[in-house]
Amino acid sequence: MRRLRSFLVRLVGPFVRRRRERELAAELDSHLQLHIDDNVRAGMSEAEARRQARLALGGVEQTKERVRDARATCIDAVRRDLAFAVRHCSRRRWHVATIIAMLAVGIGGSTAVFSFLYQVLLQPTGIADPSRLVEVYETTPPKDASRGITRSNSFPYEAMREQRTQNQAFTAIGMATDDYLALVVGGQEARRIKTAFVSAGYFDTLGVRLRMGRTFQPGDETAGEPIAIISDRLWTRAFDRDAGVLGRDVRLNGRPFRIVGVAPGGFIGHEMTERVDVWVPWGSKAALGLTPSSDGKTLARLKSGTTLAQATSLAGAIGDRYLAALPANERDGVGQPRVRPFEMNRNELLESLLPQPWLLLTGPLLMLLLACANVANLQLADIEVRQREFASRAALGASRGAILRQVLSEGLVPGVAACALGLLLAYPCMTLLQRVPTARMNEPRLDVVLQPQAAAFAMALALLSVLLVGLLPAIRASRTSLADAIKAGSGLSAPAGRLKDALMVLQVALALTLVTSGVLVTRSLDAARQQDLGLRPDGVIGMRLQFGSGGDARANAANVQRLLEGGRALPGVRLATVSSGFPLENVVAAIIGTEEQPQIATLVGAGYFATIGVNVLAGRELASEDYAPGARVVVVNQTLAKTNWPGLDPVGRMIGKHRVIGVVADHATFAGMDMHKPMAYIHLPSDVGSWPCLLVRTDGNTGALFSSLRQLARQVDPTAPVLRIATLRDHLDGLNHHLRVASWLLGLCGLASLALAAMGVHSLLSYRVARQRKEIGLRMALGAARQTVVRMVLARVLRGVLLGVPAGGIRSFALSRAFRSLFAGAAALDVWALTLSALALVAVAMLASVAPSYHATRIDPATTLRAD
Amino acid sequence: MEDTADRGDIWQGTLALMILKTLETIGPLHGYGVARRIEQTSGQRLSVNYGTIYPALVKLEQEGYVAAAWGVSDAGRKAKYYRLTRAGRKHLERAAREWERTTGIVARFLSLAPREN
């Protein structure tokens, strides 16, 4: 009770602190006065009376400190320390700003990358107890004994129904296939989404509980009633999380589907390679104009207590009965049901989104490490210099705990500021990451959200480094007596000195690694961009659409024709063509020629070469008349002409049944393929498949055309989503998107690390000079030349740099090898680039030491030696 | 320095008790008076810094055993006067009993004569 009261009284302490301080001062004043009065009455002189009273009290300030200690709660003490730390930090703005900037960059970058990886690898999937999930598949016995058993990854629908009604080992069984459909909600623009066709029991099998509404029933599979379950993301984006969404419609490939359920957040389907946004009943394919599927991926949930072996034998027995019931002539090719554990492969998602996660991780992580090492060194140097201050405080009555608390709070203030700034920085970094996998699509496949765990990890690492590193010197400082501290003056203690040197070497090595990776990746990007593709992309815009509602080739052909004519009619368009995809990507090819001498031929539209800027060297290019039954003509590139008919006129020659009508200059056709390979080009069929790409060459003003192109697409088919619209230049750059992101990230980290190294060297040297002031003064008084002083100051920096460079160099080479295995055409790290980076680093280090060295030479021996 | 600190530690345990007893005997008194009184009562044998009295007074005040108010001394000086509260009185009784018992036991132990062999 007393304790509680005492605690509560102390708790309000901080709020009346000022009044209390005044009161304490007044009380001690009155104490002294009373004592002086007594002493004077006893016959002392006024001065002597005062002296004796003070002596008896034992020091006014010491007494105040003791009273404060008695009064203080932990909260009060911490508050006092923090206030002191803030004042301390604001006195040393540069030092603290450096620490904050370094840590913030490290925290921001690594938080973003950690969040991304966390989300891909660890986030809940909405799937309950995956260990009880199994996959049902079938093996087909060989037709003749010489061939092996055929395994299939899918399972027939009919067989699944047998298992559903008869297999007692499963609590639920369900199957799914998927396809990309055009989705329209209300008056919103069409978008391309992945839709899964699932049987009843699919959601039960996965243990996914819908956010609202109902799952599909067995009757839904065949009823053909258009109903759908939508994802949490679609519910958010298209319906604004409207609670009354059930019963409303979405249009899939132009047909309305009534929403009967909303899936929980986090659930993106069982495959997890790409998120599914709409689930419709198994039998809906026909209604959408797609070929109905007879089989699909089949999953089942094991009853608890049932083993895989039991499930397999039960499934096999059901399969046998099914087979026996079939007429003999239908038994051929019917498979044997098998069961295996279902593995959720999250790495696959990671790889599909981001082939080089570790590479992206490396930059920020190195950065964070570098920042931590740098901060540690600064703190260490700072505390060394302040030995005397700590010793004085200890002598004035501060306990060791109080001094430790002070050091900790001095680390905490910049640490907390860095965390706040780092979190702010994490957002732009996440936007950057989110766009990585979407270079070629218009919607992100994954929404990167800041993960608290990731942020906590990065911040904990940063805070620990700031706080812990100060402890050791602080403990020693609190032990030192004032006299020793004053006497010692300079002279670095050996262990702390070695630690600081080691940290400096580490810093240099890390900085060099970052700088060289930055240089490396930037050079690779440059090389990729400089690469001559043989076409003139400037002024060209491409727009790729998804037609094919219903898969009607004639309707598609009509749409493509309207698209092309509409494109040609747009003001500012000089040439227009249709192709099967953006140049260098998604291009469709066929095989022509003879069986002995096959030739790959790319499908392009009339006027393709003129539009993308490829020169026709002989004959003519493909024209719209060339697509007619029986009109078999082909355009070849220069290399093909030279290989097949060296020295002869290729026009009029035959490749299989195709007659050559023209020769075009060599140009890149497929991304990553050598452009100087033999290549032929034939005319597209008129419906161009279902995802045609309209290419237009403008008179230069591409910006104005984007909206009119989009409008054109809506006029031609309002249900067809625009998959991508971009200038050809942007598109070609986008092919290097991974390189570009890496270049930005590593380049920024490299620059920042150079800056960090500079700030680190500068602060460290400034401290060193401040600390060795007396020694330098003494040496100068003894006749040391200025050069000697500068040499003395620089020696240590140089040693750190020279030790760090080889260490960083070795790491850089290792990194460069790994790098080249990831990016085709990435530049190799040569000695030249490494030397250049190392020189840059040394130069920056030297530049950073100019000011401290200059200050060292300005030391006036007379002043320094007289000081103290 | 070290020395005083050590003696201070011994002090702390009994100091609170002495303060409370002093206030009980004399009535409301300022910090200087309490320190002076303790010194006199101990026959000058306890001489420590008067300053140590103040943290002890603050603790006692926090625990509610004493209450403080500003007043004027006989000589017309302003001073902060401490007086015993009811809780303080009770606590003093209990603590004094406790103390007597402990010292009694210790004294009896110490008065045992060494056994002659």
Annotation keywords:
heterodimer; A: about 850 residues; alpha+beta; seven-stranded mixed beta sheet; six-stranded mixed beta barrel; 29 helices; B: about 120 residues; 4 helices; 3 strands; about 60% helix
Question: How are the SSEs placed, and which strands pair?
Answer:
The complex is a heterodimer of chains A (868) and B (117).
Chain A: H1 2-12, H2 17-41, H3 46-57, H4 60-71, H5 74-91, H6 93-121, E1 133-140, E2 150-152, E3 155-156, H7 157-166, E4 170-184, E5 191-198, H8 202-206, E6 212-213, H9 218-223, E7 227-230, H10 232-239, E8 249-252, E9 255-262, E10 278-281, E11 295-302, H11 308-325, E12 336-341, H12 346-353, H13 357-385, H14 387-395, H15 400-435, H16 452-479, H17 482-488, H18 494-530, E13 540-545, H19 553-569, E14 573-579, E15 589-593, E16 598-604, H20 608-612, E17 616-619, E18 633-637, H21 638-644, E19 654-655, E20 658-664, E21 680-683, E22 693-698, H22 705-716, E23 722-727, H23 728-734, H24 737-771, H25 773-781, H26 786-822, H27 831-848, H28 850-857, H29 861-866
Parallel strand pairs in A: 5-10, 7-9, 16-21, 18-20
Antiparallel strand pairs in A: 1-2, 1-11, 1-12, 3-11, 4-5, 4-8, 4-11, 6-9, 7-10, 8-9, 13-22, 13-23, 14-22, 15-16, 17-20, 18-21, 19-20
Helix pairs in contact in A: 2-3, 5-15, 6-13, 6-15, 6-16, 6-24, 7-11, 13-16, 13-18, 13-24, 14-16, 14-17, 15-16, 18-24, 18-26, 18-27, 19-22, 24-27, 24-28, 26-27, 26-28
Chain B: H1 2-26, E1 29-30, H2 31-41, H3 53-63, E2 66-72, E3 78-84, H4 86-111
Helix pairs in contact in B: 1-2, 1-3, 1-4
3D structure, described in words:
The complex is a heterodimer of chains A (868) and B (117). Helices cover 54% and strands 15% of the residues of chain A. By secondary structure, chain A is α+β, with helices and mostly antiparallel strands. In chain A, β4 (170-184) and β5 form a beta hairpin. The longest helix of chain A is centred in the middle third of the chain and has 37 residues, at 494-530. In chain B, α1 (2-26) packs across α2 (31-41). The radius of gyration of chain B is 17 Å and the shape is elongated. Chains A and B meet through α1, α2 and α4 of A and α2, α3 and β3 of B.
